[in-house]
Predict the structure.
Amino acid sequence: MTTDEPPPYRVRVAELPDGERPRERLLRLGPSALTASELLAILLRTGTVREGVLELAARLVRVHGGLRGLAAADLVMLSGEHGVGAAKATTIAAAFELGRRVALEGDVPRPTVTSPADIARLLQPEMELLAQEELRLLTLDTKHQLLSATMLYRGSVSSAPARIAEVFREAVRRNASAIAVAHNHPSGDPSPSADDIAFTQAVVEAGALLEIRVLDHLVFGHGRYVSMRERRLGFA
C-alpha cells in the first residue's frame, strides 16, 4: 500500500504581497534591509518549475557555504546548478566582481603588502575554497600599496613564456613597482611542486629584467599556505 506524498508548499515571489517582494522591499527599505538570499533573488529574477526564485537563491547560498563560497564558484560550476544557466551565472559573477573592485577604489586606504601574511589576508579566504587551480596577481605601487588584484589563469600553473608575459603585461599596464603572485592547490596540500618552483624562478628572472620586484609567490591549501620566498624556492 502506498500513500501519495503531499506536494511541497512553496511561496513564490508573485504570490507575496507587494510590500514583501524583494525588489519592492529594497526600494522601500534599502539594500541593507534584505537578506543575502533576497539580494541574490533580485539578480536571478526567476526561479524554475521546481523552485521559486527565493528558494533557488537560498539553495545556492546554502550549498556553497555562504556568500564567500558562492563568490569563489567559477562560471562552469554556477552554470551547472539547476535553475541557473549561463546568463544567471554571468550576472552573479559580475556582481561579485563589482564588489571586489569597489573595495579597491574610493577613499578607503588601500591595503599594503609587507609580508606573506598580508597577501594571505587578501587572497586566502577565497582561494582556499576554489575547486580549480587559479593563478592570481597583485600589483603594487612604490609603497607596496595594492593597485589591483587579478585572476590571470584557471588551470595548472606552468612556466610557459606566454603566461610569464601575461603576468607582466598587467603589471606594466598598471605601472606597478612590485607584484606578488599566488595560486591554490585544490587537493588541500600547499606544498609547492617542481612546476611551481620553475614558474616562480621564471617570474623572478623576468621581473629583474623589467625592474619590477617580485615580492612572493604563495601557494594556498586548506587552511594553510606556503611562502616560496620564505622557503627560498625560486628566489635567489
Summary: The beta strands are 134-140, 146-154, 178-184, 213-220, 225-227.
